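>> received
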Amino acid sequence: MNMNEPMAQKPPLEYIINHIFLPPRLPQASDDSIKNDIALCNCVIRNAKAFSKLNTSDDNLWNPIIRMLENLHTIASRGALDKQVLLDLALGLAKEETLVIPVRAQNACVFIRRLKGKTIYEMFEVDPPNEEVMATTGRLIRSFPGPALETVNGDAALAFEDELLAFLADMDIAMSETAPKTTKAKSEMAESRDTANPHYITELLPAIIHGFPESSPADVERINKHVRNEILWDNADEPWRRSPLWLIIRVALQTTLRRASVEGQTEYKAFMIFLLANIVSNDDDYLGLSTEILDCIRKKLARRLQKLADATPTPLREIGLASIGKAASVLEARWE
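>> returned
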């Protein structure tokens, strides 16, 4: 078996639900791990493949998306970035395909989009600083991506890209310069509970790309997301945060679908309904979920179906309503 391929395995349901649905009661300590990142990737890949088979979906639209997610799985399964893996994946990018590269240690992400005659590089901060999250009531409004530049495809650009990928691999280590600081006993020290400053990726990297002779600012469509962030800890070394990989996946899906099709935004919303519904429909472990979580799942699915309204394809509406019905049946049995 190729260890780089996503494995068909049951995801840890509690982790998936906590980070995707954000129920009222959440953990009070970090559950971040490579194993959980792999489980999240597997969950999204499995559902993307199933969604692409619905008669309402376009294979030409979803095949590059699935490949993008599988490449992300390959990267995420290794933890720290591997230069050779990045080089191999970038070399294999076909036209209209995207490579998603989380630079975890720098709290940043880079998208490489291979287009006809050019390549676009997009960068953004993943998690905002604690102060920004805790000072906000409700959701943060964030714009994605951040800086975006393009280069003309050719041998020189490919050689330049190899150096950029090596730079990203080198940057995926904890650095004192980007670590947040706190003062204790009149001494400044690193604050491990806060997020790293991503300026090496969001400021230095764009400057490096801009210095390449055949580069220019890219005119890309940006999206605004109303993001729910939580920072929770109780007697723990590291706080619980919503999965940064889940944010990266959503941004990658939404931006890629919107640029690929005039119906891309509707397609993204439809897929999110399908994903949320199948987390319940395809796993009998939901029977053991708390009443609070089941009620949260039911309400979130109902809201998403209502938002998409008449644009919801009939097969998808039936899938969503069936999942809502399953959760409701369990709740009714408990209340009787």
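>> The radius of gyration is 21 Å.
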